[in-house]
């Protein structure tokens, strides 16, 4: 998936409120094909349990959480 398309998809997930923070640095993301868990490690790296992330090491779910965290940082 091109990066721009991934960002578009991430933006859609955020606008539709499909990214929900959980405890322990985890986020519940309701994707088009299933619900996934994005985990933020103590070092700040993100991982997702969707098939796309397993093969490509990036996905729109991780991108959505990254954007969400940037928005929160900006407000704080
Ligand atoms: Zn994912």
What does this structure look like?
The protein is an alpha+beta fold. The protein has one domain. The protein has helices at residues 3-15, 51-56, 60-75; strands spanning 19-21, 26-30, 35-40, 46-48. Strands 1-2-3-4 form a 4-stranded antiparallel sheet, covered by helices on one side. Strand 3 and strand 4 form a beta hairpin. The longest helix is centred in the last third of the chain and has 16 residues, at 60-75. It is globular, with a radius of gyration of 11 Å. The mean pLDDT is 94. Bound molecules: zinc ion. Residues 36, 48, 50, 52-53, 59, 61-62 line the site of zinc ion. Zinc ion (ZN) is lined by residues 36, 48, 50, 52-53, 59, 61-62.
Condensed summary:
Helices cover 46% and strands 22% of the residues. The protein has 3 helices and 4 strands.
Write a concise keyword list for the protein shown above:
about 80 residues, alpha+beta, four-stranded antiparallel beta sheet, 3 helices, 4 strands, binds zinc ion
């Amino acid at each position: 998936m091109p990066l721009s398309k991934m960002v578009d998809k991430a933006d859609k997930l955020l606008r539709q409120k499909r990214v929900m923070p959980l405890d322990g640095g985890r986020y519940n993301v309701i994707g088009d094909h299933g619900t996934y868990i994005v985990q933020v490690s103590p070092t700040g790296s993100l991982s997702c349990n969707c098939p796309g992330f397993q093969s490509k090491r990036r996905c729109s779910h991780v991108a959505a959480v990254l954007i969400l965290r940037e928005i929160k940082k900006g407000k704080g």
